[in-house]
Recover the amino acids of this structure.
């Protein structure tokens, strides 16, 4: 019996996964939590084999939770289930201790395959992630930052607004999105260009003429 623990800050997704996986033969949902800290609080008294873990959560996110699990509960297998599909964030998750990585639009069959694969002691990447990482390996130099063209149109819009001095909330309001999405896009850009902070990111953008070549829409 594979004992699975679901961790996601969206209650609808947690309940949906419970309904999706709860009646699978040989599998039992032993717990649910809205963030990594609530998971860690329960693990001493709740035996778990596989944690299905969201990347972006309040209190303790997927990266920090994976690091804690690796240190305190090394026998627990981690399958990251996330909306984040940027290679830099995927590498970060795997380096933190995740044994597998899936996008949230994965099919039930792929989620089940991921759970069984990491439970068996192996690594697992969803098909979409595997193809993206393969493209990255084939096209990108391991010693140089990702090319400028790897920034998406929306990331360039966020970059322009950051350079204009807008706060994360102001950018989210202007682009009709959430603060979490804006912050995810900011972190993605930092990883792509190899910048350590926002100031370095803006300096990179200026040196590559990104702010003049890709203005935001009025």
């Amino acid at each position: 019996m594979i004992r699975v623990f679901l961790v996601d800050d969206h209650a609808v997704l947690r309940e949906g996964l419970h309904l999706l996986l709860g009646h699978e033969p040989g599998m039992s949902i032993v717990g649910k939590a809205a963030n990594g800290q609530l998971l860690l609080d329960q693990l001493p008294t709740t035996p778990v084999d596989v944690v299905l873990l969201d990347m972006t959560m309040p209190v303790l996110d997927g990266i920090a939770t994976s690091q804690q699990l690796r240190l305190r509960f090394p026998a627990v297998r981690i399958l990251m289930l996330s909306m984040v599909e940027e290679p830099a964030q995927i590498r970060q998750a795997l380096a933190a201790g995740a044994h597998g990585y899936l996008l949230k639009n994965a099919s039930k069959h792929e989620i089940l395959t991921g759970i069984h694969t990491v439970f068996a002691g192996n690594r697992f990447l969803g098909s979409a992630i595997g193809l993206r990482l393969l493209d990255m390996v084939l096209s990108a130099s391991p010693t140089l930052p990702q090319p400028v063209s790897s920034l998406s149109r929306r990331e360039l819009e966020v970059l322009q607004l950051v350079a204009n001095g807008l706060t994360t909330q102001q950018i989210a309001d202007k682009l009709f999105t959430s603060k979490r999405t804006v912050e995810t896009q900011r972190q993605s850009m930092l990883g792509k260009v190899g910048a350590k902070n926002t100031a370095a990111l803006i300096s990179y953008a200026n040196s590559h003429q990104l702010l003049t070549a890709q203005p935001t829409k009025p």
User: Anything to note?
Assistant: Confidence is low (pLDDT under 50) at residues 141-147, 213-218. The CA atoms of residues 55 and 62 lie 4 Å apart. The longest helix spans residues 179-193.
